[in-house]
């Protein structure tokens, strides 16, 4: 029976937060079955040994990524570091499975830009042509037909969605955009480091990656495409003493008369029918979306300073990674886009 | 069609954490429909105005509890402070709906014990006889036939489950039990107070309620019933700088020879077939169960000191409140007990 | 003997964080003696009953502020809410003691601006003329001769210091300044409220006071004075899940050619000989200054975007309140300005 | 002039938290001068490059520990891991400087016990005879005459002080003691690891080191000495999501009649004249002592369960490490014991 058909899924890369978050979402997704999860360093162990929260829920033994070739798979999620992902995409280039890459390897426009910002050569530039940037609110139709999707970065998701309606309408005054973004530490990954050492983060706060963070160019390219003219934005990330969540506070000057009413109309129009963007009239907080696939956005017109301020919040592991990847999968498979993604945010 | 039948549900008391947590679980529960949510202070407002995380998910306008009498309801959840709950249970005593009381009003054995520990008279003692203590791992059969369930306290849930197998087998040396429990602040409720003021909790830690915490008697009565002899336990709660979760570290001396192997068998036997208790062989942490209905338990035999140590963790708002209430509802309605309760823990 | 002379000090307003922080600093200050501390609601109680950390250190019984008139005092600190402070300054207008007001009552240029931003009438505008804005890095000489000092707000301290050198040199491109500031919750005061309820802050983050925060005008007036032309800045505060600390991330475009070297020279020149400003070449974090009177500043030139970014961090209760007040006192009394203010930051 | 004499000090081991905490305390200590700080991995760098909070305060270049032999030093602090410390104590055995060892190498009674619990051979057992256990509340006189002091562990400091009065009076019922202790993460050191990875600690809580933690034997030996009979205690540490602080909740049954009054007298008597122990009549919290050398203790008699509960809190880096080491130094040098240790706790 059609309704009972389940798609076979693989998660490549089990140890990181995007891997475990994909598992958290997909074990409850009624249209898929997790066929395999891979880890090169923990091969043979049950997934739940790595992530004890899954005890009794997902005890599948971890396999090597080499096994992917031997399985009939409908969708492969690559939850791998950039630079590693492209190696597998090259290796599996003739495989039929749809691929969703959660790394940064195919988010930019081509190998030169990639090299400039990621400081390494791209080993499989051929795939850039068919890789679709997987931000459903911008590219839904192209994603539906895609075989390879580059899942957006977490900061770009929050940042692009916060300003897309204005760029789309070519309302942005050149050079005026400042995006001051703040992220929880899960964005820095599962691996212990000085950056994520508890006492360096707890009760603390700092900026990082000033001027040169890789997500800058990803934001600039996408927003530039929207306004059909190159964009230059000022992007500054900060590290919050929280687990999950990104708040982007975006500032822009506009090139025509503006009001709160007009601003609300522009955003309302742009996001009509988009199930995971919620326009807010009260100030959004990280926990309003935590654990969910929502992006809450509040655009504000400051008459006194003649500037637009936009607040946008996401859960970096869900809308900023695993949830958006599942959203992309749903579109690629042609099933209802909300499937498996309707859990309510967890607050407190 | 039988499979499509949905039960009509009311949540009485919308503003607290148990109210919003019931909503979080029930909006995804396939066998129920939330017909009404009540709040006396916010009547008329959408539920999502009080709890913005529910925007677009549950925008139901809040009603007065007075409206409960006018509706056809299958189950009523009372998410109210103790002392208030019993007033409504009295008022609705002829109503047909099943009632699940999340307050402490019917957890104890009778009005005298209630008065001793809650320092107030009980206004409707008649219902004690039919109120079933809703800890499914102990009283599953009685809950199945109940019309009124007293949902256990959060500390008692973690504490009783950690020692029940030993009390059941009458293995506990009298007077030897110490339960040192630590809870996140959501247990203290949604209302702002000095106790929950951020700078009094953050980067801080302290004990409270020493010697006289109400949950002491609840634990003693339940464990005493199990061993068919009164129990006296030392119970000390502490306030953790975390949102959710209880860890109970329980210590006991036993009255016959013990070993790790024997201990594991006792616990394995007792919890066989209980879907929400997971016996652990690695040390459980709060986040291993956060957002879920699991109680993870690790019993340890310390040969050197001849003492049993049991670690048990729950999410105080789920297994310690709303999740357990839904578990009780499932049993009362005769539907599969796991229904709507299988979300994976959220880590990080 | 001259060296032994101690000045008599009163702290008016014991219950708040600025009151207890003044006590923490002043009990170790070798040139002063705390003669009295006042609280209208806790009169008679030892100070250490309100703040148990002072047990055995400062057990002085709290007095009513009415007693201030009866004592020989050299310096009176007013650690009171705005609107209350001015009442006392009016009442004590003929008292000889130097006064340091930690509220916002005399920080602005006059009663009209005050009314506009604080939404209430000023009851004692006469004192505006003699009130000196107590930011020692800008107004050291005027503070030395002052009898009444308006201690700066916490955000303005971090914000003004971050941009003062550029405004002083009239380098700022009009309308280009965005100050995105983030503060710990102690800035919201000691009183329990929804805003500071643990579970609303912990693992969470949000903006507040957009467009209309009172500190906006305080920053604009001070920076405007420096460049001898009105300034308009975009100021957005955010609430961090930390106890103490403000990070201001300031963005500005400049009206002449700039380089990192030139920027460093401008800041180096401006802050030469200022003991509590530390120019940083590594990214400053809140904990680098926690518990201390330092303001760490890092100016960055972004060649790509042609924009200056300045990071500045302070402890809002020390450099942003009590420490700066003591600094002002030292200047007013003519004793070495660092006296009592050299404790090292506490990290972790 | 005698009063002006400053003692020359070295801190061996600059990178850890005990090293930086020693620096924080000693830069303000009027009787000492920090002559050298060592680090084998960062030799040549300024101390403030490792710990930016000391910029402008302590910029001393780091030296190799080999240089210690070449300097005239009065006191050497060894802020090193166990196993490393004893190597240096062996190497410097003929050096005249007083030595204070902050590792565990000389805290136990001898090399066999050491090997049993630290799982390694002791390389310089000869020094056990002259090493004094540096808990001033117990061994003040012996510390005054010592050349080598073994600075107590953090958990033992909080634990021993909480029960010493009862053991001293031989009041403890054998086998009845349970110490349930909770520590901030700085106790786990400065080095990044899974244990201290932010998202593994934040909003989380767990036990560790059950049954076998090394501090168990240290507590047992010291308490056993006090009652002149071997002691066996149940000790369980837990990891708190806070930077600093230990709370030990200790439970004991007693072998004679007890009352709150009697208990208070026993503790009052024992701690009379001890400047850093504060007996509390309100429940102590970690922040009541944070950043300070105080140990706050509250003994409670539970009439209902006939059990003593003792709450004790310390800052693990101060009273549990660097502060206590400086206290020991003061005693060894014969200067007033409070010197340099009177900073007030930092709250919030």
TrEMBL record, chains A, B, C, D:
Q: Show the SMART domains listed in the entry.
A: Semialdhyde_dh
The UniProt entry, under CDD domains, shows:
AGPR_1_C (cd23934), AGPR_1_N (cd17895)
Does the UniProt entry include the keyword Cytoplasm? yes
Q: What is its main location?
A: cytoplasm
Q: Which residues form the active site?
A: 154
- Cite the GO molecular-function annotations of the record: N-acetyl-gamma-glutamyl-phosphate reductase activity
Q: Where in the cell is it found?
A: Cytoplasm
Q: EC number(s) of the enzyme?
A: 1.2.1.38
* Enzyme class, UniProt record, top EC level: oxidoreductase
Keywords (alphabetical) are: Amino-acid biosynthesis, Arginine biosynthesis, Cytoplasm, NADP, Oxidoreductase
Q: Which residues form the Semialdehyde dehydrogenase NAD-binding domain?
A: 8-146
Note whether Ribonucleoprotein occurs among the keywords.
Answer: no
Transmembrane stretches, start-end:
none
Q: Which reaction does it catalyse?
A: N-acetyl-L-glutamate 5-semialdehyde + phosphate + NADP(+) = N-acetyl-L-glutamyl 5-phosphate + NADPH + H(+)
Top-level taxon of origin: Bacteria
Q: Name one Pfam family in it.
A: Semialdhyde_dhC_1
Task: State which pathway it belongs to.
Answer: Amino-acid biosynthesis; L-arginine biosynthesis; N(2)-acetyl-L-ornithine from L-glutamate: step 3/4
What family is it from? Belongs to the NAGSA dehydrogenase family. Type 1 subfamily.
UniProt function note? Catalyzes the NADPH-dependent reduction of N-acetyl-5-glutamyl phosphate to yield N-acetyl-L-glutamate 5-semialdehyde.
Q: What is this protein called?
A: N-acetyl-gamma-glutamyl-phosphate reductase
Read off the lineage from the record.
Bacteria, Pseudomonadati, Bacteroidota, Cytophagia, Cytophagales
